[in-house]
Amino acid sequence: MDCIYCSADASGSKKEYHVAPHAAGNTVEHRRLLGEIILPKGLACDDCNEYFGSKIESAIANHPYVQQYRAVYSIRSRKGHPLYRDGQIEISTRESGLLVLSGSVIELTDSGTFRVPQPTLEAVNHLQTSRAVHKIALEYELIQIAQARDWKTAREAVKQAALSKVARYIRYGHHSSYRPYGVELKGATRVSVVPCRFEADPKGILITPPSFTGYIIGLPGARFSCTLAGDPLLLRYMLDRIESMEGSNYLTTRRIFWSH
C-alpha cells in the first residue's frame, strides 16, 4: 500500500496516526465521545507521520489562539500543562492545578475575573499553518469517503487531480503553491471538524467546479477554515455563504491569510 502523501510503501507502518494533533485536544476521551479521528495504519507511512508531527502539526498546536486558550483552561498534552508566553504576559499551570498569570497588561474586572489581551499573529508561520489546516481537512474528507463507501474508495479519491494536489501541498508545500486559510478567535474544549459542501451559484461569477467541500475545524481557542476545491479562492465564497447562514455576528474576529 502506497502512502497517500509521498507514495512510499506504507504497508509496514506501525505508528498511530492522528488527524488532529494530540496537543490540540485530539485525546482518547475525545475520540470516545465524538468518534474515530485516527487514520488506519497503512494509509500514510511512518516517515510522513513523523514529519508532520515534528514539522507541521505544531503550527496549529502552538498557534497563539490555541496556545493561550490551552494555557488558560489547562488543556494538557502528553508533555503536561501548556505554557503561553508572548512578551507581554505569561500563563502557566502548576502541578497542583493553580493557574498562574503574570504581566502588566492583565486586568482584573469588577466581577473578579481576569481579562487578558488578544494574542497577536505577527510571528505565525502561515505556510506551515495552512498546510496543517489542510491536512486535517483532507484526512477528514477521506474518513467521510471511507464511512460512506470503504477505504479502497478513499485511496482512489486521493489519487484524483484535486485531492492529489492538496496532498502534495501538505507534504511538500512551497511558497509558490500556498493555499489560503481562515482563522477565528473562537474555539471549543474539543476538536470538531465540520464539512461544508457547497454548490456553485449558477447566477454568480463562479463557473467551476460545480461543487466543492470546505471545512470548519474547531480547536481549543480557534476555528480554522479552508477549502479542498481546486481553486482555493473559493474559500471566500464559502465563508461568505456560512456568514449569511449563521448571522452577521459570525466570525467577527475572522482573518483570511491569502498569502504567507
Question: Reading side by side through the largest sheet, how are the strands ordered?
Answer: 9-10-11-8-12
Tell me how many strands there are.
12
Number of helices: 8
Q: Which structural class matches the secondary elements?
A: alpha+beta
What overall geometry do the principal axes of the alpha carbons give? globular
What is the mean predicted local confidence, pLDDT? 77
Describe what you observe in this structure.
The structure is a single chain. The chain is of the alpha+beta class. Helices cover 34% and strands 18% of the residues. The protein has 8 helices and 12 strands. The strands form 4 sheets. Strands 9-10-11-8-12 form a 5-stranded antiparallel sheet, sandwiched between helices. The chain has a 3-stranded antiparallel sheet with strand order 3-4-5. Helix 5 packs across helix 6 and helix 5 crosses helix 7. The protein is globular and about 60 Å long. 38% of the residues are buried.
Task: Provide key terms for this protein.
34% helix
Write the SSE topology.
Layout lengths: L16 E2 L9 H7 L3 E2 L6 H11 L1 H4 L2 H9 L11 E2 L4 E4 L5 E4 L4 E2 L5 E2 L10 H23 L2 H9 L1 H12 L8 E4 L7 E8 L11 E9 L2 E6 L6 H13 L8 E3 L3
Antiparallel strand pairs: 1-2, 3-4, 4-5, 6-7, 8-11, 8-12, 9-10, 10-11
